[in-house]
């Protein structure tokens, strides 16, 4: 194939991408650059068919970071915390315009889940290499994703929104405020009442929490009274919900990749049950603790969920699998590429 434009046209595309700004650093940036270069060489006979622009903080410059050395161009950005650089949406937008790139790749972390970024880029005619903001908002919120999972007939554990139902023929991407609010708990008394309905032990969870923050296990009403305010304090302003604890369960995940034409592929599964303080330590693949037919059900359910909101890009669907009953339950969806996705590279034999 002679050029990127011809390649795009041959596959029925409508916008060839000749240049990309990498709004990330470290492993994410290096892995992306190597992946694009490898694909470009195999497809076009040259590693530089796609022009790659990196962002470089003073800290990156000081250590001669690899992503700076192997990019086609780099732009110096302020140092310090990531809100000054890799998570600064306005800065990313300005650099994308100055360098005249066709697309921006956010990687994981930093600005990858900031809804402002895809919207701002879209206004400027620049492609965001990730999910649409509306899908990200729907599935990136734990409460919203549970509601969508229920509507898509993906099993969920008993939780404070189990009683909430979507009206027939509803648009699952946009959740009405009254439905969302009916799934939340706002006071200690409401949390206690919900825990009594779903049954102890239960989890008090912040919808915007993650990485071990905004989550507490409770066994009785007294513990709810003691811990509810802690969850609120760890993730200020976040909606709170209650979920039944799945005892003797494993944490299983399915990696998805989705295109804008409604095609959704499940790239196998992994077991992420070895954790400390709700943070994953060891991940194994493929899943061996569940029968092959159950793993297939996990993949089909994940694909059904993504299709229900017209998801585009990479996503991870997380489940809890009961070792006692063999049943599985939707936990949440991460609307981005996972930091440990490269384990799948080894299994798929693709970068």
From TrEMBL:
Domain annotation ATP-grasp: ranges: 169-336
UniProt domain Biotin carboxylation: residue ranges: 16-351
The keyword Transcription is annotated on this UniProt entry: no
Keywords in alphabetical order: ATP-binding, Biotin, Ligase, Nucleotide-binding
EC number: 6.-.-.-
Cross-referenced PROSITE patterns: ATP_GRASP, BC, CPSASE_2
Cofactors (names): biotin
UniProt cross-references to Pfam families, sorted A to Z: Biotin_carb_N, CPSase_L_D2
Main EC class the enzyme belongs to: ligase
InterPro entries in alphabetical order: ACCA, ATP-grasp, ATP_grasp_subdomain_1, BC-like_N, Biotin_carboxylation_dom, CPAse_ATP-bd, PreATP-grasp_dom_sf
Residues in the signal sequence: none
One GO MF term: ATP binding
Source domain of life: Eukaryota
Annotated PANTHER family: ACETYL-COA CARBOXYLASE, ACETYL-COA CARBOXYLASE, ISOFORM A
Name of the featured protein: Putative ligase
